[in-house]
Amino acid sequence: MRIDSAKSSQVKQVAALQKKARLRREQGVFVVEGLKMVLEAPRERLLSVYASDSFLEESGEEALKGIPFTAVSDNAFKAMADTQTPQGVLAVVKTINWKREDFCGKDGALLLFLENLQDPGNLGTIFRAGEGAGVTGILMSRDTVDVYNPKVIRSTMGSIYRVPFAVCEDLETVLAECRKVGITSYGAHLEGEKNYEEADYGKSSAFLIGNEGAGLSEKLSEAADFLVKIPMEGRVESLNAAVAASVFMYEAARQRRQKQGKINKE
To answer: In the chain, at which end, N or C, are there fewer CB atoms within 10 A of the end residue's CB?
Structure first.
């Protein structure tokens, strides 16, 4: 099968999925662009793959490693893509519904609670850094930017497939449930009681990261077991949300490696 016209119903469908979060939710799918994102997608979740003429001419079918695809004219592919300079291959992927219990109840859990994050790049970067630091799950408030936003997907660099996550109606309630199973929570806050490196993240822990501009809400701050801060030099008041989250996650990872004897204690 081949698609030549940018007015094709399939082209219009993919373009709509790129733009409309509601449509993605209703159909339980999202769109990924680029060869890396297509190849890393679990095969059972790949619903359809589209490759442009230019991509096929340069890389051929071998680049897709046996994944079935539909050839698309360059003009039609451009109408499908969200990026300004498309890589020539994209896919519609089925979403996955992670069970919160699967990652909240794990011994040695390392969780992130994200409240009202609005920047797609921040959210995607947090997923990528989270995978690198060994995070076991990410929980997001309902008003956080859509995790399947194309810019979020690109920023995850494939981590969206592997890091468990859930969108929650009430983070405070979930936090209380986590406390019952032994998870200690640490809210990132400018008025933290101690510096982040002074806390012990060796046991099951959760970090609470707030909105880029407003930080954590008063309600979620009060729900945290402890408030911790990242000390600042100069005139800088705070760090980008993704950078701050990464600092916390990698400190936890460092402490855990140290306890396991994988790094020197000196």
So the answer is: C
- Number of other CB atoms surrounding residue 11 within 10 Å: 22
**β-strand pairing of 89-94 with 29-33:** antiparallel
Residue 40 is encoded by which pair of tokens?
């890393």
Give the number of C-alpha atoms closer than 13 A to the C-alpha of residue 120, restricted to the C-beta side.
11
Residue with tokens 């940018």: 6
First to last CA, the chain: 62
Q: Of 18, 16, 221, 249, nearest to 120 (Cα)?
A: 18
Instruction: Find the mean pLDDT for residues 3-18.
Output: 97
**pLDDT tens digit sequence for 161-172:** 999 999 999 999
Measured distance CA(254)–CA(57) in Å, rounded: 46
The percentage of residues in the chain with a pLDDT greater than 70, rounded to a whole number, is 98
Q: For residue 227, give every residue at least 6 positions away whose Cβ sits within 8 Å of its Cβ, in sequence order, or none.
A: 186, 187, 189, 191, 192, 193, 221
Mean pLDDT (whole number) for 65-74: 96
User: What average pLDDT does the structure give for the chain?
Assistant: 94
Q: Report CA Rg, the chain.
A: 21
Label the pairing between strands 194-195 and 46-52.
Answer: unpaired
For the cut 60, the answer to whether the pLDDT of residue 266 exceeds it is no
Residue 153 makes CB contacts below 8 A (sequence gap 6+) with 30, 31, 32, 33, 37, 124, 160
pLDDT at 56 over 60: yes
* CA dist., res. 250 & res. 23, Å (int): 36
